[in-house]
Specification:
Order of helices and strands: EEH
Strand content: 5-15%
Shape: elongated
Mean pLDDT: 90
Number of strands: 2
Radius of gyration: 21 Å
Length: 65
């Protein structure tokens, strides 16, 4: 599968082991929120509507669930 990485080793000596050469890409702006527990705006939405990002989780969850 084609990707943006050119090389993980062919970099200037001062950056060896800390840099990767890549080709410039056009950005596709996408927002993604990964939730591992119920907090913040997700908690507020759950308390108000019973869903998080439109998905109904189980009833009775509390902060940090």
């Amino acid at each position: 599968m084609p990707h943006h990485v050119i090389s993980g080793t062919d970099v200037l000596a001062q950056w060896a082991g800390r840099a990767v050469r890549c080709q410039r890409l056009n950005m596709i702006q996408v927002e993604c929120i990964g939730r591992g527990y119920l907090a913040g705006l997700g908690l507020k939405e759950y308390e108000k509507y019973g869903s998080v990002s439109g998905v109904p989780p189980p009833k009775g969850l509390v902060e940090g669930s």
